[in-house]
Amino acid sequence: MKHAATPPRKPLPAGIAKVLKRLHYPLEVMLQCVRWYVAYSLSSRDLEEMMAERGVAVDHSTIHRWVIKLLPVFEKAIRRRLRPVGESWRMDETYIRVRGQWKYLYRAVDKAGHTIDFLLCARRDTAAARRFFEKAIAGRGTPKTVTVDKSGANRAALQALGAQRETPIEIRQNKYLNNLVEQDHRAIKRRVRPMLGFQNFRCARIVLGGIEAMHMIRKGQMFAPKGRRASPA
């Protein structure tokens, strides 16, 4: 009895093929390790043991290299498939430890709790807040209203951006309304906490980008085939 021939695998996009050029493991193994690393509270050593149980011998340092090389490609692919967000934003920043020092992760969600964007910055000031808003607006459109905390830097950044537009962005400073984004920080902090800080700023940005991307998938923000829901697994 003849078996149906297995259809040939589609060629990988040039960008992904270039990244994978020197990573000598099956693509499925690498993608699974990278997804699990940012989706769950697992260290690279945990993943090393889990792969060994599945008959795959790979060192934890190799898994870390996969994470740093593949996550930027992964995040870029997810961003292209994100659903639109609302025009009422809640913005706040939280602390992330990098090389023993606190850095600042700027984040925003809409009133439905969907992630707008994020940006890790070395400082917490008007310039950093403005960079975040410019990035978020470029990728997600201009909001009608933005709720921030009592930080003068965030308000000043929004006022500077609003001065360049025909219709200024409405700024609200309301601690109660900002509880939504503060609660959303918890999912990111919960995944970062077992890492005990990052060794350098570049790695922190890459890994946080992957964690945020997985968080958006969990919240159903990525387009998926009809009748299905995208999953981090």
Automatic annotation (TrEMBL):
Matches recorded under PANTHER family: BLL1675 PROTEIN
InterPro entries assigned: DDE_dom, Integrase_cat-core, IS_Transposase, RNaseH-like_sf, RNaseH_sf, Transpos_IS6
Function: Involved in the transposition of the insertion sequence.
Superkingdom in the source lineage: Bacteria
Gene3D superfamilies per record: Ribonuclease H-like superfamily/Ribonuclease H (3.30.420.10)
Residue span, Integrase catalytic domain: 80-233
A Pfam short name: DDE_Tnp_IS240
An MF annotation (GO) of this entry: DNA binding
Keywords tagged on the record: DNA recombination, DNA-binding, Plasmid, Transposition
GO biological process, one term: DNA integration
Name of the protein in question: Integrase
NCBIfam families for the chain: transpos_IS6 (NF033587)
